[in-house]
Amino acid sequence: MKSILIVEDDRALGDGLCLALRSPELEPVLCRSLSAARNALAERDFDLLLLDVNLPDGNGLEFLRRFRSAAGSVPVILLTANDMEMDIVAGLESGADDYVTKPFSLAVLRARVNAQLRRGEGTGGPLVLENFSFDFERMEFRRDGRPVELSKTEQKLLRILVENRGRTLPRGQLVDWVWTDGAEYVDENALSVTVKRLRGKLEENPSRPRFLKTVYGIGYTWTAGEKEG
User: Fold this and answer.
1) Tens digits of per-residue pLDDT, 4-28?
2) Which contacts of 123-130 are long-range, i.e. CB under 8 A and separated by 24 or more positions?
3) Domain closes at, from 118, 145, 173
4) Res. 126 pLDDT band, cuts 50 70 90
5) What 3-state class would DSSP assign to 218?
């Protein structure tokens, strides 16, 4: 059974989320404050966090940034009434994997929760996406059946993008995740160079990429085999 930590101070909404998401395969745990969430995370592991931004004892974005800086890799979906574009960008740049604004459809939320829970599940072999075959464990990569040689940095970036396929990942977040041993010393130009090299190896026309796309003003997304939700 997988477990999801819900951090929401609105009593009715929190109880409703637990009721909507509970199933034989999923156990929701509700916390109404950040301090309670910290205690819950210290006591057990969770497969997903549903995190409100405005909470009585602090800001969810700051909580998320500290969670990520402590190597927290669990998927996080922000759940908030802040629906301006700058709010969404701030949430993604703080380390969120998805951003759902209130009010929202429970059916859509369940789909997004399921999409995040599926992320990272092993396939037991190469991951086949359209005309690509990626085996990150054996470091074997193919396009149209032909092998492609990737550097360690290119492999790391590609894996992050593929595991989050269909979602836009901010440039700053990608720098933090790819260059984990010293991202504060890495110029974002290094990311641009790595993206360009990946496109040169994987795209038929690198100047007009079909799969590794730029989302201007935010970051990059991988679209081959795009996930739903």
Assistant:
1) 999 999 999 999 999 999 987 889 9
2) 127/162, 127/225, 128/225, 129/162, 129/165, 129/224, 129/225, 130/211, 130/224, 130/225
3) 118
4) confident
5) coil
